[in-house]
């Protein structure tokens, strides 16, 4: 699955899965955390996008 824009909430297909994300500051978790991030749950991603976007907001994502 190619990188997709962040919809502002956890995508249904990502629930219970791990994801690769690219943040607005350019950080790509494929380089820093090959196991990805939990998409939801207790330690899951925060999908909200601030206005204007915060550097640590998720810009792009894909399922691992």
Task: Describe the structure in your own words.
The chain is mostly beta strands. It has one domain. The chain is built from 1 helix and 4 strands. Strands 1-4-2-3 form a 4-stranded antiparallel β-sheet, with no helix packed on it. The protein is globular and about 30 Å long. The protein starts with a strand and ends with a strand.
Total tally of structural domains: 1
- Helix proportion of residues, in percent? under 10%
Gap between N and C termini = 8 Å
Number of strands: 4
Main sheet specs? 4 strands, antiparallel
Global shape: globular
Give the key terms.
64 residues; mainly beta; four-stranded antiparallel β-sheet; 4 strands; globular
Task: Produce the secondary structure layout.
Blueprint: E1 4-5, E2 18-23, H1 29-32, E3 37-38, E4 58-63
Antiparallel strand pairs: 1-4, 2-3, 2-4
Quick structural summary:
This protein has one helix spanning 29-32; strands at residues 4-5, 18-23, 37-38, 58-63. With 64 residues, the protein is mainly beta.
């Amino acid at each position: 699955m190619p990188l997709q824009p962040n919809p502002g909430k956890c995508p249904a297909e990502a629930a219970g899965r791990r994801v690769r994300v690219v943040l607005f500051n350019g950080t790509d978790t494929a380089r820093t955390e090959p196991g990805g991030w939990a998409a939801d749950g207790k330690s899951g991603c925060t999908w909200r996008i601030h206005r204007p976007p915060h550097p640590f907001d998720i810009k792009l994502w894909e399922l691992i």
